[in-house]
Amino acid sequence: ETVRLDYYIKNTGNEPFSLTMGIQEKPDGWIIEFPEGSDVYLGIGDETTLTMNITAPNEPSFTNSIILEGESDQGTKDTFQIQIDTPTNYRFDLEFDIPDVLGVTYDETRIFNVTVLNRGNGEDVVNIQMEMLSNELSDWSVEWEGSPDFPEAGENASLTPNGVRHYAVTVFTPEGSSS
To answer: Which terminal residue of the chain has fewer beta carbons within 10 Å of its beta carbon, N or C?
Structure first.
């Protein structure tokens, strides 16, 4: 989305001057444009209102800082900072380091990792729950982060914006029958 921002410049000095506006710092992916150009001439006491177009990327951070710089033809410089807070968005992904189907044998231990990624720009809490789906697996045991008891209410993963949390799950298969 592009936002139009008007800014005001006045020559309060006793000499005319030319001013060049520029961007000293901006977040990655942001576009800052000066539709009327970045150069302006001001006589003594002249004032003008100019426009700047600010375009944010599709998924910006929550708080963003832009530093503008004005430099006159006489060598004087001035900077000012604009802070832009964008709407918070929430989204997360779960990743596993195992294939969709994993074969195991009797008396085997397998460890796999669960990664929770906060893809949003706001702090978020994701509740992870784990449940054995088949009665046929009653002889198996599963440990969550080294504990044989997974919290009944689930595990709350607190995530900072664009944060990552890693968890280890250990699966123990039963001993095979001797026949």
So the answer is: C
Phi-psi region of 89 (alpha: psi -120 to 50; beta: other; left: phi over 0): beta
pLDDT in tens, 72-105: 998 889 998 999 888 888 888 989 888 777 777 8
Task: Give yes or no for a contact between 48 and 105, defined as CB atoms under 8 angstroms apart.
Answer: no
- How many whole angstroms separate alpha carbon 133 and alpha carbon 19? 70
Whether the model pTM is above 0.85: no
Rounded Cα–Cα distance for residues 179 and 69 (Å): 82
Separation of alpha carbons 157 and 124, rounded Å? 8
Determine if residue 152 is left, alpha or beta; phi over 0 gives left, psi from -120 to 50 gives alpha, anything else beta.
Answer: alpha
Classify strands 31-33 and 77-85 as parallel, antiparallel or unpaired.
unpaired
Q: Residues with Cβ < 8 Å from 44, sequence gap 6 or more?
A: 11, 13, 14, 15, 16
